[in-house]
Amino acid sequence: MLQYFAIQVKTRAEGKFIRLFKAMHPEVPFSLYFPQRRIDIRRRGAIRETTAAVFPGYVFVEVETESEEEIRTHQWAFRRTDGFFRFLKSNQNICPLENRDLELVLHFIKKVGPVAGRSRVYFNENSRIVVVDGPLMGLEGKIIKVDKRKGRAKIKLDLYDDSFSIDLAFEVIGSLDHR
Q1: Which of 11, 91, 136, 146 could, after both became Cys, cross-link 57 (CB 3.0–4.6 A)?
Q2: Phi then psi for 134, rounded to 5 degrees?
Q3: Whole-model pTM?
Q4: What would the pLDDT profile of 51-72 be if each residue is shown by its tens digit?
Q5: Band of the pLDDT at 105, cuts 50, 70, 90?
Q6: How high is the mean pLDDT of the chain?
Q7: Of 7, 29, 31, 12, whose CA–CA distance to 80 is shortest?
Q8: Is the dihedral of CA 87, 88, 94, 95 positive or negative?
Q9: How far apart are CA 148 and CA 150, in angstroms?
Q10: What are phi and psi of 172, to 5 degrees?
């Protein structure tokens, strides 16, 4: 049975934490994930494609186990790695992801892949966004703002008791009457 745990690490150093952890502790049998998203940023008139974290400051640990004790036996390996802040819910109460939190994380780890690209969308007769495929598929209820000009949808993500919003890129493939 696979279980997933969340670790809070230094923001914008998630990839560095994973590389450092694997180099320092090659004996630890866990897979570490750091979902990312690709988005275009306009700076000084030039558009650059940038990669950023989907969950800034979080790394996810996949543990194949029947008990939660396995993560506890290796917790000091994580804690000794530079950039580590804490396990979620806390270092004393290490809990696997469950329910909505687990579904959300698995959406980006398993369905989308390591880097979320552009979603393909169209707008219906009421100017509401309709997702055809891509990372936004299944997250339509979490969209809080759409910027057609920039090709971005702002979505609200909840993880444990924390709530934050991120932008995901999309490309418009037409409107409903053109399909």
Answers
A1: 11
A2: 110, -175
A3: 0.87
A4: 999 999 999 999 987 666 778 8
A5: very high
A6: 88
A7: 7
A8: negative
A9: 6
A10: -85, 130
Rounded to the nearest 5°, which phi and psi values hold at 77?
-65, -40
Q: How far apart are CA 156 and CA 165, in angstroms?
A: 4
Residue 105's nearest CA partner among 139, 78, 129 is 139
Q: Which residues of 13-38 are buried (b: 16+ CB within 10 A; e: fewer)?
A: ebeebbebbeeebeeeebebbbbbbe
Place of tokens 């495929």: 133
Return the H-helix or E-strand segment holding 24.
Answer: helix 14-24
The letter for the amino acid at 79 is R
Sheet holding 2-9, edge to edge: 31-33, 58-64, 2-9, 84-87
Residue 93 CB partners (closer than 8 Å, separation 6+): none
* Cβ–Cβ < 8 Å for 50, 40: yes
Q: Give the closest residue to 36 by CA, choosing from 20, 59, 19, 17.
A: 59
Structure tokens at 18: 């994973």
Query: Does residue 83 surpass a pLDDT of 50?
Result: yes
